[in-house]
Amino acid sequence: MPLPKDPLRIALPVSVYAVTFWGAQIVFFWVLSITGVFGGVTLGTLAAALFANWLALRIYEDQPLWTIGLYPTHAAARNGAIGIVGGAGAACLVLAPPLLLGLARFRPIPPAPAAGTLPFTLILLAAGSTGEELLFHGYAFQKLLGPLGQFAAVFLTGAVFAVMHSANPNVSWFGLLNTAGFGVLFGYAFLRSRDLWLPIGLHFGWNFTLPLLGVNLSGLRMNVTGHEMVWTAGKLWSGGDYGPEASLLTSGVLVLLFIYLRVAPIGRQTAPPGDPPAERVLCGSSSPPL
Question: pTM of the prediction?
Answer without folding.
Answer: 0.90
